[in-house]
Amino acid sequence: MKIGIDKIGFYAPHLYLDMKKLAAARNIDPDKFTIGIGQEKMALPPVTQDSVTLAANAALNMLSEKDKQAIDFVIFGTESGIDNSKSAGVYVHHLLGINPRARTVEVKQACYGATAGIQMAKGHIALNPDSKVLVLASDIARYGLNTGGESTQGAGAVALLVSKDPQIMALEDTSTYMTSDIMDFWRPIYSDKAFVDGKFSNEQYIAFFSQVWANYKEKTGHSIKDFEALCFHLPYTKMGLKALRTIFDEGSEEDKERLFDNYQHSARYNRVVGNIYTGSLYLSLLSLLENKQNLKAGSRIGLFSYGSGAVGEFFTGILQPGYREHLQMEHHTKLFEARQEVSVEEYEQIFEETLPVDGSTIELDIEKDPAAICLAGLENNKRQYINKVN
Ligand code: HMG
Q: Are 155 and 141 within 8 A, CB to CB?
């Protein structure tokens, strides 16, 4: 039985910051951000968007009534959770009107959480072939104003519907993975900003990729020539390219050109969104599928997932016949076109606008946020969500 990605949806908040303007404000050569880091724009969440609303907005246009009845498992991968007890997925389950006969959980391991979710979904469907699983990957990457990580912030979510006989990509069975207890990036419970050892995190990302890629080749006998494209977790778009370059000499000039060209397509959305942690790898896959016109059905795509701390996995999928007809290209194009630029001053103000943590009641101005699903306020320590289309 084929199991894999049946539908894929994306959402980013409606505000963005131009990286060249951020560079100017920080007295940095703009080429460092646009070429050295490889980022053009950074998605910025207003206070009315959190990991719950981003995920719900990503899934909203993608699910049919039939899907909502068939989904019996919601898996929410995030490292921007809003509660240490209740899963963010339970809110999304309600906001989207998914039938009550479903399991819902939140999964955490830095940017790797949604990949764990996909593998759990695959196992669930193998046992329950008529089920559909909604896997959500939603995050807000915050390092802080004027920090080394500032240029690699972002916000957004990807929603994946996993099922048998998938319309977009069938996942293959072999994957290779590893865990090592390292401190390259972490966020203690008391902090709303991440701590990072930037250079070490880059080194570990490459080291993990080298290891799982070597293990994959050993396990399957496949090589670089068996891949149409490789997609990477993209904390910033230069990172994946650095990893890809480490294996270029394993193939011919033609392999190198094909993988490099497809890499550029796979990084387009990420270049204008920034890091969305759990969703970054899947945004890169979506970017490849929506921006590259002529990928053939039957092509093998490799996916490298990395979550600091750290867990890494390499797995693969096969594109299905007619996959392009099942993408939501028009919807995503409109989403990107409708975004509004903010100045550096506005960005700093929005960045500092956080929710009270003392239990006080607050009503937020959701009129300024064009998203269908918003955070409307806080009352008795409870987040108040609203779905404007209901
Ligand atoms: P930095 O110190 O600001 O930058 O840190 P740099 O000095 O290393 O320069 C970056 C690149 O720009 C270099 O290129 C420079 O040469 C180049 P490279 O040598 O790397 O190819 N450069 C220029 N290029 C053109 N014109 C110029 C110019 N100047 C310099 N004028 C760093 C950068 C990414 C470390 C920092 O932003 C950071 O700490 N970010 C957060 C951590 C991160 O993203 N790590 C990635 C791997 S870990 C990961 O992916 C997991 C993560 O997503 C979290 C999770 O799992 O939950 C982060």
A: yes
